[in-house]
Amino acid sequence: MAAVVVLVLAAMLAHSLFFSHVVINGRPRERFEWHVIDHYFLSTQILVGLGVTLALTAVAMAGGIVIGVALAVMRLSPNPIVSGSAWLYIWFFRGTPVFVQLLFWFNAYYIFPTFTVGVPFGPAVAHFDVTTWLTPFVAASVGLSLNEGAYMSEIVRAGIISVDEGQTEAAQALGMPRLMALRLIVLPQAMRVIIPPTGNETISMLKTTSLASVVTVRELLFQAQLIYSANYEIIPLLIVASLQYLWVTSLLMVGQYYIERHYARGSARQLPPTPLERLRRGLLIRPGQAGFGRAPFIVGND
Amino acid sequence: MVRAEGVRKHFGRHEVLRGIDLEVRTGEVMCMIGPSGSGKSTFLRCINHLEKVDGGRLSVDGHLVGYREQGGKLYELRDREVCQRRAEVGMVFQHFNLFPHMTALENVTIGPVRVKREPKAEAEARARQLLARVGLANRVGAYPRQLSGGQQQRVAIARALAMQPKLMLFDEPTSALDPELVGEVLDVMRSLAEEGLTMLVVTHEMGFAREVGDSLVFMDQGVIVESGPPREVLSNPRQERTQAFLSRIL
Fold it and tell me: Which chain B residues touch A175 with a CB distance below 8 Å?
């Protein structure tokens, strides 16, 4: 019964999506205007926007992971100043909206017009003019990375804590310093716990980058908005953007599956076959089942 | 090799070690027995500084553990120096603590390669020899989870030996094993003892203590109650507490 309800609803959805019309200004019009979506889906503007979105996601996640690992290690440090400062960072960046942080970095040149590298309170080595360096893309990268670092650090810390204490002791007994033990022994094992939520974060980041459209980064949503502000095809272009986000997300999920498998090494006696392996095996077994009687031989070849 | 004088250790208000005096000579195999909670494992962990000593003097091969003495004063060692000292002492744990993401061979080579910076080929060749020695020549590429408990513990022994330690500490190495797997681990330990390796073994295997040990220490409630040649202590315990403990487990 439930299945019937679901099927009817699905039929209604399909009908609404693909076959229904609306009457606007006395003229009937395809409701979702798939031809408009089709027209813009692979347009240069949209693809350029997608490229910027991907770049921003990659940069922000890379930055976030580096900051996150550093913060996690700092928080687990026996030194209270080190662990305390990491705690303070996380408190601040988790406690303020990422949107506000983006706006802050976009306008940061008001309070930090120059950026100087040198000895603290001493002579300077190099000056950077922030107004020229802090492009919208850089501001968005910095803002998203710093914010992501706070979340990633908690994920990494959870991973590190999940590894048995005996592993650190065994590494120490071999004479490994704390950081070497962390890098060679603990972190690789922590990865099993770290990867799934990091996949989540990456997918979430892909979509969070759309906030950067507000600080004029020419990413996917910005480009879609640019197009519909000219031709008023608002819904079709939002669908274009959504479909782009959707297929990249799907790809990321596949990638996550294989990364998880990689880090499961040694945790199960034998890894289950990947969907591709299963498919290939299925295709090879089928002729045997159909009566050739040579299935074991063919499977053996696989 | 190991000299302890009045070694004390407490966790919070609980005193785990209340003045331990003992000496392990080079080439000696000393077994430590006693009820759980008596402080045997804690003492063992103090020797390679996995636990910090709170009082008394503890030295390995003439070096104080965790401290440097200069002009009658004690200075805490820096992390790097602590690591150097630890690298000279091998340790085998009750729960093996093999690195599960590495093969048996990688478990045995990682210490020499990363800590002692030996060339990889050299370390690998020696690791293969060591694994063959503990009877695992054909399981070199196996991950710990693909090995039985006894096999894992033998890999762990090979891992400790790969550092060419001057002292080996065994912390109840057979307590987590199925009874039928205990023998294979004890056999390896026996052959190490015959080669003259200095060993300090916390164990409940009285047979091993009797046959392989040069000396036996009985600990209870943070102190050494009785010590001497294993046969004597096990056959004619002089202290009441030793008698009570032995009557319970033999």
Answer: 83-88, 111, 115-116, 163
Token pair, residue A168, equals: 């650190």
DSSP state of A164: -
pTM listed for this prediction? 0.80
ipTM over 0.85: yes
**Neighboring chain B residues of A261 at a CB cutoff of 8 Å:** none
Task: Express each pLDDT in A70-121 by its tens digit.
Answer: 999 999 988 999 999 999 999 999 999 999 999 999 998 888 888 888 888 8
H or E stretch covering A41: helix A34-41
B110 touches chain A (CB under 8 A): yes
Give SS3 for A193: helix
Does the domain formed by A33-116+125-263 have CATH 1.10.3720.10? yes
Retrieve residue A266's tokens: 């040694």
Closest CA to A181 of B86, B210, B171: B86
**How many residues does the structure list for chain B?**
250
> How many CB contacts within 8 angstroms connect chain A with chain B?
77
Q: Does A267 touch chain B (CB under 8 A)?
A: yes
Structure tokens, A296: 């074991």
Query: By the CB < 8 Å criterion, does B80 face chain A?
Result: yes
